Amino acid sequence: MPTWPASLPFFPDAAAMTRSAPINTTIRTPMSAGPDKTRPRFSAASRSRPGRIHRLTKAQLQAFEVFYRDDLKLGALSFTATDPFDCTEYEFRILDYAVGRSGAVFTVDAELEILP
To answer: How far apart are CA 39 and CA 62, in angstroms?
Structure first.
């Protein structure tokens, strides 16, 4: 399994650090009387986490895109990294990303998935 490149910061922007609860993890069945019956859908579920990397150089942006394209096979594979949100190592997958530019520096905004 690939690991995050040491030459790149791992989505360190504290302002963009949030983490969501797993979504669609239960099945609700309406009852003829009383509240719906609810049961778990899975034994484990992934969570999403947005991330942002500021102030990347052109070389760092190229390293990120090579990592995504070649090592992660365009996002099909997961990788391990330590999440600065809680300093715990997780297995991540990049669901989507976008690149912005301001002068000679670049910003990467991505939607990450934390795998169970």
So the answer is: 45
- Whose tokens are 């719906």? That residue is 36
Cα 85–chain centre separation? 12
- Sorted by where each begins, the domain ranges of the chain are 14-115
pTM: 0.77
Pull the structure tokens for residue 15: 């302002």
* pLDDT tens readout for residues 68-95: 999 999 999 999 999 888 888 999 999 9
DSSP assignments along 38-72, one per residue: EEES-S---EEEEEEEEEE-HHHHHHHHHIIIIIS
Pull the structure tokens for residue 110: 């991505």
